[in-house]
Specification:
1 helix, rod-shaped, 80% helix
């Protein structure tokens, strides 16, 4: 029974670590995307072409 609990605990710790890594990746991706969109929105575009 001790081997089962040890194995289960090891698995549970791996799941938590992978979940934290995934969450950090999602948050970083969202922050980078928001930063990119904010830069694009604040850029003044001047059209110098003829109409």
């Amino acid at each position: 029974m001790g081997a089962f609990l040890g194995s289960f605990l090891e698995y549970a710790i791996k799941v938590v670590v992978y979940a934290v890594i995934a969450l950090a990746g999602v948050k970083a991706g969202k922050a980078l995307r928001e930063n990119k969109e904010a830069k694009a929105a604040s850029t003044v575009r001047i059209h110098t072409g003829k109409r």
